[in-house]
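Slide 14.
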Amino acid sequence: MTIFAQRLNLALDLRGMTAADLSRKTGIDEGTLSNYRKGKYTPKTDKLYLICDALNVRASWLFGFDSYPEKSDAAITELFGQLPAQQQDQVL
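Slide 15: predicted structure.
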């Protein structure tokens, strides 16, 4: 199974969504989503955008380039909050 397929399945689990839910949100056929989830194919850019938007994840995360899935600034804020005070001062 590809990293994309693993992370797509993980994103669905994290969001409490089924493939049918994702299909309704994106308009992508469930059979096509099934092929993505099994790692048989990866989506083209237009479908990738729809998937990322529906799951609120970064494309770079789906392909294994990022370790944090969310697209929002909340991820950065959370990571910043985990730094010791001295490192937070350095960042600022």
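Speaker note: Helices lie at 3-15, 19-26, 30-38, 45-55, 59-62, 74-81, 85-91.
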